[in-house]
Amino acid sequence: TFVSPQILKLLIGFTSSQDSMWKGYFYAVLLAATATCQTLLLSQYFYRMSLVGLRIRTALISSIYRKALRISNTARKESTVGEVVNLMSVDAQRFMDLTAYLNMLWSAPLQISLALYFLWQTLGPSVLAGLAVMIILIPVNGWVANKVKNLQIKQMKNKDERVKLMNEILSGIKVLKLYAWEPSFEQQVLKIRDKEMKVLKQAAYLNACTSFIWSCAPFLVSLVTFAVYVLIDDQNILDSEKAFVSLSLFNILRFPLSMLPMLISNMVQTGVSVKRINKFMNSEELDPNCVQHDQSEFDPVVVENGTFSWGGMQEEAVVLRNINVRVKQASLVAVVGTVGSGKSSLLSAILGEMEKLTGRVNTKGSIAYVPQQAWIQNATLKDNILFGQGYEPNNYTKITRACALQQDFDMLPAGDLTEIGEKGINLSGGQKQRVSLARAVYSNSDIYLLDDPLSAVDSHVGKHIFENVIGHKGVLKKKTRILVTHAITYLPEVDLIVVLKEGQVTESGTYKELLAQKGAFADFLVQYLQEAGEEDQVDLPEEMTELLESNVELKQKLARQRSRDSESSTHSLQRQRSSSESTNPDTKLLTQNHTAKKQGDKLIEAEKAETGSVKKHVYMHYLKSVGAVLTLVTIGLNILFQMFSIGSNIWLSRWSSDTSLIVNGTQDEGKRDMYLSVYAGLGLGQAITRLVSAVTLYLGCLLASSWMHNYMLNNILHSPGSFFDTTPVGRILNRFSKDVDTLDNTLPQNIFSLITCLFSVIATLTVISYTTPIFVIIILPIGILYFFVQRFYVATSRQLKRLESVSRSPIYSHFGESVTGAVSIRAYGVQHRFIKESEDKVDFNQVCLFPSLISNRWLAVRLETVGNLIIFFSALFAVLGRDTMNPGLVGLSISYALQITQTLNWLVRMTSDVETNIVAVERIKEYGETPQEAAWEVSPGPPASWPDKGQVDFKNYQVRYREGLELVLKGVTFSVKGGEKVGIVGRTGAGKSSLTLCLFRILEAAGGQITIDGQDISKLGLHDLRSRLTIIPQDPVLFSGTLRMNLDPFDKEKDEAVWRALELAHLKHFVKGLNLGLQHQVAEGGDNLSVGQRQLICLARALLRKTKVLILDEATAAVDLETDDLIQR
């Protein structure tokens, strides 16, 4: 780097002397040779460093993954899934970006000191003045960088918040559509986005300042140095040798000086990431010794004096107290109790998921766990059941038959090879539950913990499963089973019943013993036998009947119990549990022609990786978003900037070659001051144009990104239900986090650098051509060479980048999936397999990333060679034309040429960066143009009082899920009068849920019509329609925010009305007991409430709306019979 200015000195000396020509040629060749050496060394260095970066990133990702599988529940609550995924995507990436520049920490100061040494030799002590300017600028830069860092932290917070909200909106999109709540949530997102834009605007001004300081520093430095040099002593005369050698040294100084602040701010950012990762890696883990595995213990499951909490030592966190349970080998134990009494918590305690405060837990043998909310992986049905075990056809068939999955396989398009979407999109709740059960049975473990596995299935299927799997004749008859259940029917057949009430075991024993005790359990039964009913008699198991006969007070209730019993098992049945999923319960009716059976039918379309160059229209779309005025202003200002810059250098060359300055050995002071002041004036012009152009550019880009985000958000919320069934949430979220982030932060900086580089290259070529006109001939071949290298590189690098980003998505979605299913993964003890899977995905990503890094080095070598050619020719022509050129022009032309290598390199980098990142615009544009559902409002709307009676008529109604699928409802006709209660029954997948979706036009008619009070609903605006109907959906979906916001997001109702609704839903007591009452914060997905409570909140939500038509979609599935009873009334 430092050899070049020395050669330049010799060259300028050569042109003004009369040495023989070979010296000139020798200098020219030498100049090119040093440049080439530099190129090769740097490339090797960057290549080595980027490998180190890759390794660091891999190590981080895999350790974060391992940690996520061990983290305790309290710690899990502290950060949302989104934040943890961010650690992996953003923070690990930061390390990688930093490694290549870390060595600048020692090399930058070294470069600075060397440059100063050579400058001292040229200009003497006046260099110190220039140095002083540089030193003053460093803290200023530091201050700006610090400000930017604070803004970045703020913006990360806002971004996390926005992405988390988007995640919930997309997961609960079905509920938002059913309730016509989209506008309220859209406002919430826009509120956060506005905060984000404010921060980004501040950052934009600061960035403009930085680039202003950055571009004016070299000029200021040279100005101050030259001024001091010529002013301190009349004898000091600025000749071209001194002027241009020092200019090229100042240019060398520029790089390390500008890199230092950038490096420091990068290190600060990485520091923030280190903190975040550290906090996560140090968060507390589940205590592995919480559950012992003492083989000498006689019973397989033992809990003695156990007190357990969900983290935290506060009184209210304790969920289970003094639990004593012993489960005998191969027995079947039922755990019963009301909603929220701690049944699921008991299973968690046995699994070691809860914090154990006192007592001991011992299990021996392997465990299989069926959670209340089935956790389904994004894979085929078969893989979900095998769960990593080998495939044994006989066993497999036996188990799927027992779990009643056989007929589901027959219905699904590709049988058990059907791809199940993200979070199991194309299965109904009952099917998921059965898959989850089949997985447990297939794992062939010793202990089975079953958390209400029969809740989401029809009563006859439930009976089939109980008999064939769980009961005494079932597949699991030799295993130890603990069953949490709401269904009374099966209790007589179990070996031991444990009754839980408010977190304590009130009694346990066999069915007979408990009834005889007339304790809590007997009351428990009695409570359900309250309601009379004279419908069909159900045969109760004999012992039940005998017991009741002998027990007078129960006897009177027997008749009523019979009818009630048949209902109870059906109610608790469709406890469709997929709270956080946007499930489409019946998409499993995709009975496409069975020819497709074999290949495995995918529901989720593969993510598109665009090929070829980014289309012109994408750039046009972006420029349109920025606005014509801002675009033109920015370009104009940049041209002005370069004009000032060239002007000042040409002026310097005039000044240094002006022989008339010296009169009798001293300077003519008037002329000297004139040269100096014009030089300063030109510099000021540079400064001002630079600052203004940076500000206009950043603001323009932010305008565009703000507009595009809102456009995409609006469109996504207007998309029909089918769009969300075929598009995984992760993919849409990726648009909202990664791509919007690119628009906010990366693109403006890229475009700014691109414009600067482009104009700077044009300026350099202009200057060289101006000084040595013959150079124009060389520009053309070199330009063509450059163009081909650039096209070839950009095309390759773009495709590699695309491959890399497509291969990156699976890492994150697999990670998200593992975090959600961590409990199951731990229960089955398959952490190693999942870690391996994650690492394979990372490896595949590396395979795509590595070539893209290497292609960068390939490019650098080629480009710098082009730059070196330019240096060589400009030197050669200077040598050839030494008789016609004055030394000032030689200095000017070569010092410009020495800069060009770096600028060219940057130019291609930036072109390709802009191309890669403009893909974000393309992707956002694609989602901003998804097909839309019908209009939300249509004028004239229906009368305000509509519907006043609530009469619903279906006339020959037909509907299908998506184009090209079979009809789901095949010409249904019926009518419901106002005020009637009508039940709709049918087995799982008969189209019950589809019928309700039609009323809300989530599914549009394929034929026929529905009228409500004589209004044809297809003529209404969707919000007009949906806000006048109310549904309590199968899946109780809650959003994080206050309880009040969950009940009434538009803040339409008064508090009294809200309390009234809570009272009717039997939640008043519970809410009054919370510290914050209605302002109680609901966790993401409602995780801090039990499933039953969530269901009740959904009920309260419906009661608040007071509409004439109320639809209950299996609404009481997750509620115990007692509460169910209250709701029915």
From TrEMBL:
One of its GO terms (molecular function) is ABC-type glutathione S-conjugate transporter activity. It is found in: Cell membrane; Vacuole membrane. Signal peptide: none annotated. Residues 301-527, 954-1127 form the ABC transporter domain. The chain crosses the membrane at residues 25-47, 98-120, 126-146, 203-232, 252-272, 625-646, 678-704, 751-768, 774-794, 859-880. Residues 558-602 are annotated as: Disordered. Keywords: ATP-binding, Cell membrane, Membrane, Nucleotide-binding, Repeat, Transmembrane, Transmembrane helix, Transport. The keyword RNA-binding does not apply. Residues 558-568 have a biased composition (Basic and acidic residues). This is ABC-type glutathione-S-conjugate transporter.
